[in-house]
Amino acid sequence: MDLKGKVALVTGAAQGIGKAIAEILLKNGAKVSLLDTNVQVGEATKAAFEQTYGAENILFLPCDVTSENQLKDSFSKTLEKFQRLDVVCNNAGIVDELNLEKCLNVNLVSVIKGTHLGIEHMSKETGGAGGVIVNIASMAGLIPFSIGPVYSASKHGVVGFTKSLALTCFGKHGVKLHVLCPGFAETVLLESLQSSKVPGQKEKLQAMVAMIGIATTSQIAEGFLHLVMDQSRTGASMKVYGEGKFEYEAQPLDADPGTWKPTE
CA nearest 221: which of 61, 28, 53, 36? Predict the structure, then answer.
């Protein structure tokens, strides 16, 4: 997809991975709607982006993705300002093992709702031009993650939901679905894990970091861009390791062979 003149909506875009994804979209000529609950940081990010990419190309919308009304309203306001929608990135996520409902609502339920809203507004069946949705999961959605089982469950859900819906979505709506699965990233989420006082957790985390590595948010955004630009497949699952190395996961055996391209 050529991003020049296209419009993207990114959740959790005030900082971290979401901010890096928003910036790489802007760098490639897209207009971007930034959604986040953190109004102060979101406004600061918007102001910084405006200096480089122009105020006409950026919209910041305070949005709690667990509120269906706020999420719907943000999609509507994005379309009202930019008159189209081509890319959706459901990125907002948290680690909260003590509040499992909140963790699941932010990490999984909001992704499902954001995906359906994206399809609704981009579907060729309803007058849209098609598009791409990239849902941000995690390597914890592909492998066991003993220090965050609720977080892992939410991310496994994102992977399963995205890859399953992708089997029919492109043919029916003209919307491609992908899932990006970063390992560890230089974000506040990693900082919160590293500051844990649970016995043995730091040692387990250090062992996993040594195996997977830590990527910068910019490197993860490069993986996101690769998925958006890839015209050859839908339903792809991409892992991002330390130093920004990425690779596609093998496709499921029950996939429609006309939909998938073998992993390279």
Answer: 28
Catalytic annotation present for 53: no
- Beta bridge partners, 32, equal 8, 58
Q: Which amino acid would we find at residue 123? A: S
Identify whether the C-beta of residue 53 lies closer than 8 Å to the C-beta of residue 26. yes
pTM above 0.70, yes or no: yes
Picking from 104, 94, 184, 90, the residue whose alpha carbon sits closest to that of residue 136 is 90
110 and 92 in contact (C-beta within 8 Å)? yes
Rounded-to-integer distance, Cα 192 and Cα 39, Å: 21
Q: Which residues make beta-bridge pairs with 248?
A: 238
8 and 25 in contact (C-beta within 8 Å)? Answer: yes
Joined together, the tokens standing for residue 248 give 């596609």
pLDDT digits (tens, 9 = 90+) for 98-138: 999 999 999 999 999 999 999 999 999 999 999 999 999 99
C-alpha 103 chain-centroid distance:
16
Taking the C-alpha atoms of residue 197 and residue 160, their distance in angstroms, rounded to an integer, is 32
Distance between CA 83 and CA 67 in Å, rounded? 23
